Amino acid sequence: MEFLVASAIGIMTAVGLYLVMRLRTFPVILGIAMLTYAVNVFLFASGRLTIGAPPILRKGIETYADPLPQALVLTAIVISFGMTAVVVMIALGAYLGSDDDNVDDAPEEDTPGKGDAA
Amino acid sequence: MMHWIIAPVILPALLAPFIVLGARYHISIQRSVSIAGSLAQIAVALGLFLGAADGTVTLYQLGDWAAPFGIVLVGDRLSTLMVLLTAVLALFVMLYAIGSRWDERGRHFHALFQFQIMGIMGAFLTGDLFNLFVFFEVLLIASYGLMIHAGGTARLRAGVQYVLFNLLGSTLFLFALGAIYAETGTLNMADLAERVTLVDPQATAGIRVASVLLLLVFAIKAAVVPLHFWLPSSYAEAPPPVAALFAIMTKVGAYAIIRVYTMVFHPELEATAGLHGVWLLPAALLSLAIGMVGVLAARKLDRLVAFAVIGSMGMVMVSISMFTQDSIAAALYYMVHSTLAAATLFLIVDLVGARRANLRLSALPMIPGAAMISGMFFMAAIAMAGLPPLSGFVGKLLILDAAFTTPLMAWTWAIILSASLISVVGFARAGSTMFWKAKSLGHQSSADDTVAPPAVLSLVAVGGLLSLIVVLTIFAGQVHGFMSELSAQLFQPEPYISTVTDTPGKLSTPKEGY
Description:
The structure holds 2 protein chains of 2 kinds. Chain A is mainly alpha-helical. Chain A has one domain (2-51, 65-98). Chain A has helices at 2-20, 25-45, 67-98. In chain A, α1 runs antiparallel to α2. Chain A is elongated, with a radius of gyration of 21 Å. Chain B has one domain. The radius of gyration of chain B is 22 Å and the shape is globular. Chain B has helices at residues 7-22, 27-53, 77-99, 109-125, 129-147, 153-184, 189-196, 205-221, 231-237, 240-246, 249-263, 276-297, 301-321, 325-353, 370-385, 391-403, 409-441, 456-474, 476-491, 494-502, 510-513; strands at 58-61, 72-75. Chain B has 21 helices and 2 strands. In chain B, α4 (109-125) packs antiparallel against α5 and α5 packs antiparallel against α6 (153-184). The two termini of chain B are 22 Å apart. Chain B is an all-alpha fold. The A-B interface holds A 20, 25, 28-29, 32, 35-36, 39-40, 42-43, 45-48, 68-69, 72, 75-76, 79-80, 82-84, 86-87, 90-91, 93-94, 97-98, 103-106, 108, 112-118 and B 130, 134, 137, 140-141, 144, 148, 150-157, 159-161, 163-164, 167-168, 170-171, 174-175, 177-179, 181-182, 233, 237, 299, 302, 353, 357-360.
């Protein structure tokens, strides 16, 4: 099971990093999503992998699941979900405004003004 | 238990929803609530600051849970100083945003502003690493909204870059936290400081990776080269009052580095010995050099100021990365100075930008009110470049003095001094092109003479920030004395740690509550 989880995190991170380095917004956002999945599983595994163990103290039980990483993961999932939604909206706005969804700086325009006349 | 320490977080957290829900269509109510909130924030921050000035460490256990189990807020000299700096900066930026009517150009400026303040204050006060992550996210998500305030294609594009870079940073932060938790089983900073000393010296690989990952995250926030790429575009394209507020955001990264790397992974710690000193100082020197070269190379005034921010953060990080008591004190003095100077410059850029066709460094007809604006630019540029008589010079002197006994002294001195020279040339070139050469071209055509003179509030804001820089210069001796005491407290973390871990609360002894 350790190998499965570790390789899953590794593959998702690799895929995420590759996608993040692309030039267009859509793959980059997918890459960020992959990375957040990877980090969520990683956080989950940071409390050690256990199967069928209770997280709450009870009499006569030796092995427990660590409840804290589960709480951390919940927080992380909510935050990354919200952030991804925000970046999708901003990217959509930028794309509709400039007809171009590259993530690098726009080539320096020769017309005066900062482009914020709107 | 004193409840005031959570007020800097609670107050904006209550004001922001009120502004959104109660005063959505009434800009004047929003403004007065915002200003009242900022004033109250300063009062609270001042109270906390004075309370911590004698070296007491205030602990606040949320929900009364004892330290490693519950989240704690901790107020010591460093935290309360940063809280006070944020509160003061926020008031002046808010005044400027109202005076220049930037807050009317999009919706929810004031609410987002309050959420931003909430996140920054929380990040300074928390004593728990995961909670620090949460407050980072609070301040970031508010900053995303502020960054694209008033819209515009260039701003949205820069916003996408900014958000993506920070999302990557957050992911890295989570990886670091997961690694730390897996190695030590705690995320409370004080508890962590005790547990890392127990790490088996034979098996330090995990904790070393975690410590470097964490340093990377904070270095992204502090815009240390080569992790600075998010800064120039986003600061230059953000609405100028927002960029001025963002001047404190890079300092959040610097604060986190000071906090974590003097208390938890301090330089003497065996498990991570010689890790951050080796990498941080060259990176900081590089950011100083690149930032100041950027000042010289910039073709627009807003980019110039953004690069000056990178350079001044480099200066702060050079001083931090020496990790001695003197150098941290010097870094803190310079940090306060550079926050004020950078914010002032961004506001002046807006004063110029509102009166010129563009912000390119080219000679255009003189702007109305040039005498005063150029005078303020001159003063802020002197402060930023670190020329006498203003506080930048004092700060730089302190940093040079702290570097005198370090092994890399020759490099540090050479780079600091030549970077200063380059930035002086850069600022001088920008100022003379924009204000001096303009004279020969005469005034702008009569059609543009209708541009209103700067609003009183805007001038109050810029003047207030400039006078704070002057105050910081005049009382440099006292301020530096305080910073030395602060730094001494950082290097004696035992009272902090024992306050956090030994204060009783729920679950502090297993038999007590259950």
